[in-house]
Amino acid sequence: MKKVLTIAGSDSSGGAGIQADIKTMSALGVYGMSVITAITAQNTLGVHAVQEIDLDIVEKQLDVIFNDIEVDSIKIGMLASGDIAQLIKNKLVTYKCKNIVIDPVISSTSEFRLFKDTALTKLKDLIGIADLVTPNIPEAEILTSLKIENENDIITVAKKIKELGVKNVLIKGGHRTDNSCTDTLLLENGEIIEFLGEKISTKHTHGTGCTLSSAIASFLAKGSSMEESVKLGKDYITLAIKNSFPLGKGIGPLGHLVELYEKASIKY
Prior knowledge:
The protein has helices spanning 17-27, 55-66, 82-94, 120-127, 137-144, 151-162, 208-221, 226-242, 258-263, and strands at residues 3-11, 31-43, 46-52, 73-76, 100-102, 132-133, 168-172, 182-188, 191-196. By secondary structure, it is an alpha/beta fold. The longest helix is centred in the last third of the chain and has 17 residues, at 226-242.
């Protein structure tokens, strides 16, 4: 059994954050563990409030995991503050962690700010020790202060993020404004790898970033290469989006556990 640790915030509605990460890891056959950095009051209509977890509790969660259990890969999501980002970087270096995937959660889909601008420097420092960072277009623009309008811009921004020290950069193109069919671009060891995505007509996409990064971390834990992990992660999230469903009054969650749902005779 491979063990994957998610370091992220909690989503009270279950569609993103820690909850989405654990569902994804379970679906992909790895053992999911968690370090919670923040609690959000959140539903399908958006994020309504955030409460950071005290630093000493975040630190204790990390220590008890690493002192007891071998961790095969790590997914990092919402961190809430620069102090938490700094703490996590120090701990991951101390414990010589491997297969670190960072989803730089800066704002929610509803544009609720989840990370303070004044803390970006510490987030960038943390990104510098990662094996992969997976920003979407708005996040990539914030990290580099550059505007993305076409594919050449994406390549430029990916190379700029690579300068932070991270080994590989994955730019998610779901927020593209041009008509290109390339929806994801991976900069791996200086090589540009493009992934063509399938356009799925649904508004129920809550937690896609969390899910993709968790899926990639799961496949890395199981021994897949970076490129193969990204490909398999994209295959999984495509299936999950195809099986997303309405919940509440807003943007519904993905079908993370579609095989279990079908076994339970739930019909889409």
